[in-house]
């Protein structure tokens, strides 16, 4: 078996300096879901992620790995654990906002000139039923001390849920597509309904014939062009 790279190394940026670590003899094991419950119990004891001691997170994840691989005795071979913390609601909002920007960029010049999406749309979409959450609580002496909301399946249902729902609306109701159109997605403050509005140029020409006073033998046709913008609501309603 040949090495992936002759000069395998891991680079990271810290305090303005790029550091390189030789990884020629390192094996990276990527696992999913193991230790998530244990990390959540640690996280709900602190107000912010920055307050959580890294050592404490590493300890609970390492313990979960040891329990999971107890029969294989594989946990003893793991020298270092890097916890990937579970997503909370605000992280799902950020991911959806990123996906919306990508949606705009991926179809520019094909379905629209630009897709304008209000900032609050990402938060609205993060609360749809297609995105699942779970509540974890810390119980001390029989009483709930604190609670936090975590994304039940991480970001896995973002693409198949709210993003796919919006994309289907756009591809259905924007036909025929106009690559020069400006598409705006907004939400009514009172009704909470979503609107998809398409704005594009409507060219109208008004011809005005004038006679040249300087040259009596010819007449000039001067076309004065006027450009107007027309906006049409393609769809409005609630995402179901």
UniProtKB/TrEMBL annotation:
> Which GO cellular component term is one of those annotated?
cytoplasm
Task: Quote the InterPro entries the UniProt record gives.
Answer: Torsin
Q: Which GO terms describe its molecular function?
A: ATP binding; ATP hydrolysis activity
The protein here is known as: Uncharacterized protein
State the organism named in the record.
Phytophthora nicotianae (strain INRA-310) (Phytophthora parasitica)
């Amino acid at each position: 078996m040949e090495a992936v790279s002759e000069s395998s190394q891991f680079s990271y940026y810290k305090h303005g300096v790029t550091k390189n670590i030789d990884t020629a003899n390192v094996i990276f094991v990527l696992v999913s879901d193991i230790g998530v419950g244990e990390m959540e119990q640690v996280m709900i004891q602190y107000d912010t992620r920055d307050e959580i001691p890294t050592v404490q997170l590493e300890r609970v994840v390492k313990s979960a790995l040891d329990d999971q691989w107890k029969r294989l005795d594989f946990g003893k071979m793991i020298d270092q654990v890097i916890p990937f913390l579970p997503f909370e609601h605000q992280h799902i909002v950020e991911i959806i906002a990123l996906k919306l920007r990508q949606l705009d960029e991926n179809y520019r010049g094909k379905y629209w000139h630009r897709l304008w999406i209000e900032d609050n749309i990402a938060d609205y979409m993060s609360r749809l039923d297609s995105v699942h959450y779970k509540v974890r609580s810390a119980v001390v002496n029989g009483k709930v001390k604190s609670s936090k909301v975590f994304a039940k399946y991480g970001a896995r249902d973002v693409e198949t849920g709210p993003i796919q729902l919006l994309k289907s609306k756009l591809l259905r109701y924007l036909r025929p597509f106009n690559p020069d159109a400006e598409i705006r997605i907004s939400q009514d403050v009172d009704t909470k309904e979503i609107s998809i509005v398409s704005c594009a140029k409507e060219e109208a020409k008004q011809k005005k014939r004038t006679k040249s006073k300087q040259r009596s033998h010819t007449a000039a046709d001067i076309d004065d062009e006027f450009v107007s913008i027309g906006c049409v609501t393609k769809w409005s309603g609630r995402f179901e």
